[in-house]
Specification:
Rossmann fold, phosphatidylglycerophosphatase activity, HAD-SF_hydro_IA, 6 strands, HAD-like_sf, binds magnesium ion, YqeG family HAD IIIA-type phosphatase
Length: 169
């Protein structure tokens, strides 16, 4: 059961994604969470660094889809400049939106990765959909209250995950 909450990998930030490693694993589609994965939840627009980051992914041939539990307004505004595939009110950890994202990108569970900051939405949801997951450290300590509640439990899961990962390495 606990394994369903473990990510495939855990990295400090989206900028630590290893593009050549993703290519080596034949990854073609990348699903990104928005809030606290790309920007703090209360920041409306991506900055130049984020815009450039997605341009680089696209020029490397990756398909990208934003999958957020946040509102239509939030997601549309954030995606204005990026012009990526995007799904709002995703109801993560339900796997429905991840499947929809793969349909949009024309990828499948074996060549897609979910990248997000939350164990109980991004990682659990991705795992349930059979997709590889990469957990990132939240970009900000500011959280919406619903998220705040989950962070304590999350820390426990991450501790166990890291202990097991050390054993394997
Ligand atoms: Mg998030």
């Amino acid at each position: 059961m606990l394994k369903q909450l473990f990510p495939t990998d855990y990295i400090p930030s989206i900028f630590d994604l290893n593009i050549s490693e993703l290519k080596r694993h034949h990854i073609k589609g990348l699903i990104f969470d928005i809030d606290n994965t790309l920007v703090p939840f209360d920041v409306a627009h991506p900055d130049d660094k984020i815009i450039h980051f997605f341009e680089e992914l696209k020029s490397n041939g990756f398909k990208v889809c934003l999958v957020s539990n946040n509102t239509e307004e939030r997601v549309i505004k954030f995606n204005e400049k990026l012009k990526l595939f995007a799904i709002h009110k995703a109801s993560k950890p339900k796997s429905r939106s991840f499947k929809k994202a793969m349909e949009l990108m024309n990828t499948d569970k074996d060549n897609t990765v979910v990248i997000g900051d939350q164990i109980f939405t991004d990682v659990w949801g991705g795992n349930k959909a059979g997709i590889k997951t990469i957990l990132v450290v939240p970009v900000s300590e500011r959280d919406e209250w619903v998220t705040k509640i989950k962070r304590g439990l999350e820390r426990i899961v991450i501790k166990i995950y890291e202990r097991q990962r050390k054993k394997v390495k």
